[in-house]
């Protein structure tokens, strides 16, 4: 434990480690996981004190009456035992969609009703922002099919596995006809906008689910070598982006943008596309491959499971009245 950590750090870090799914502990050494957890905690702790971060955030997402200090991460004590570390966020950086992200907890809600009560307590601390919901991550399922579930929404599943494990799995269907080519210019961004528009016309609620990425985002992926054109039988079929970073207790490759043109969707190519990507990744034994998938997207979850990934946690949200 870092001697410069505050007294409450041990509560968060011990809970974070002990709540990890057993499969994650089977994949990775304990010291490695604890190191990742400490790195994330240190980053969040810095955001409780960082004036430059707070001023920059307040300029990016200005809210009338909000002081820059209010954009810093906060420690909130719900009672004598339960604590959370929180941050105000804005979905797609839209100031009309403020929410509170719980980045650390030293407990897990025992029910959807308890999660609702927790959210109400936290929202009181953020009245200036009028948050619309509270978001938190948990490694165990919280919905039980009862009436209380109306208070809680299961937003995103986190699926992951070690890259080395996935590389040794059986090759999926269509593997031979799918290829990836690194994007060499940003013409790919125009194609992305066309595909996004296609998807949005088919599903008007997409705007509330998927944030449209910026040209700068694509430029960063291209410059890092993590932006690809998807080809099926040599024909352009879509776009794939990946990023290498830390996520919760993991370090490795996060699959970001998988956008297929209309004529190539729902044809069963997803597994082959991801397998081609996995084989391109230069990963050490302890690096993971992971993605965030809506629980409603059962096809994508099934694909990830077939490739060898496991569901290792979920993000939940509680609406604020």
Structure summary:
This protein is of the alpha+beta class. Helix content is 34%, strand content 27%.
Task: Supply database-style keywords.
321 residues; Aminopeptidase; alpha+beta; 34% helix; 10 helices; 2 domains
Ordered list of secondary-structure elements with their pairings:
Blueprint: H1 9-18, H2 22-27, H3 30-46, H4 51-60, E1 74-77, E2 83-90, E3 98-105, H5 112-124, E4 133-138, E5 153-162, H6 163-167, E6 178-182, H7 187-202, H8 215-224, E7 227-232, E8 235-247, E9 250-260, H9 270-280, E10 288-293, H10 298-307, E11 310-319
Parallel strand pairs: 3-4, 9-10
Antiparallel strand pairs: 1-2, 2-3, 4-11, 5-10, 5-11, 6-7, 7-8, 8-9
CATH superfamily of the largest domain: Gcn5-related N-acetyltransferase (GNAT)
Count the strands?
Answer: 11
Largest sheet: 11 strands, mixed
Helix content: 25-40%
Overall average pLDDT: 90
SS field, number of helical segments: 10
Succession of helices and strands: HHHHEEEHEEHEHHEEEHEHE
Structural class: alpha+beta
How many separate domains make up the residues?
2
Return the CATH class of the largest domain.
Alpha Beta
Query: Roughly how many Å is the radius of gyration?
Result: 20 Å
How far do the termini sit from each other?
A: 39 Å
The gross shape turns out to be: globular
* CATH architecture classification of the largest domain: 3-Layer(aba) Sandwich
Query: Low-confidence parts lasting 5 or more residues at pLDDT below 50?
Result: none
Reported by name, the CATH topology of the largest domain is Aminopeptidase
């Amino acid at each position: 434990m870092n001697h410069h950590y505050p007294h409450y750090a041990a509560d968060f870090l011990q809970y974070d480690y002990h709540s990890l799914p057993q499969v994650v502990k089977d994949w990775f050494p304990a010291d490695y996981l604890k190191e990742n957890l400490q790195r994330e905690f240190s980053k969040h702790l810095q955001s409780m004190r960082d004036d430059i971060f707070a001023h920059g955030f307040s300029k990016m997402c200005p809210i009338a009456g909000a002081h820059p200090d209010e954009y810093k991460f906060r420690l909130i004590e719900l009672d004598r035992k339960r604590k959370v570390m929180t941050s105000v966020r804005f979905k797609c950086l839209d100031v009309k969609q403020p929410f509170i992200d719980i980045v650390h907890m030293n407990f897990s809600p025992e029910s959807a009703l308890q999660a609702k009560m927790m959210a109400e307590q936290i929202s009181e601390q953020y009245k200036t922002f009028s948050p619309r919901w509270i978001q938190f991550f948990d490694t165990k399922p919280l919905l039980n099919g009862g009436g209380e579930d109306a208070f809680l929404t299961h937003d995103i599943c986190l699926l992951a596995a070690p890259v080395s494990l996935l590389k040794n799995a059986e090759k999926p269907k269509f593997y031979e006809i799918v290829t990836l080519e690194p994007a060499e210019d940003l013409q790919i961004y125009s194609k992305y906008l066309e595909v996004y528009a296609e998807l949005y016309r088919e599903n008007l609620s997409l705007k509330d689910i998927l944030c449209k990425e910026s040209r700068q985002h694509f430029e960063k992926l291209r410059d890092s070598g993590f932006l690809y054109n998807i080809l099926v039988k040599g024909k352009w079929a879509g776009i794939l982006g990946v990023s290498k970073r830390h996520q919760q207790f993991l370090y490795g490759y996060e699959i970001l943008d998988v956008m297929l043109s209309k004529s190539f969707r729902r044809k069963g190519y997803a597994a082959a596309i991801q397998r081609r990507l996995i084989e391109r990744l230069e990963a050490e034994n302890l690096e993971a491959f992971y993605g965030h998938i809506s629980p409603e997207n059962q096809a994508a979850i099934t694909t990830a499971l077939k490739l060898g990934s496991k569901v290792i946690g979920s993000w939940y949200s509680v609406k604020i009245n």
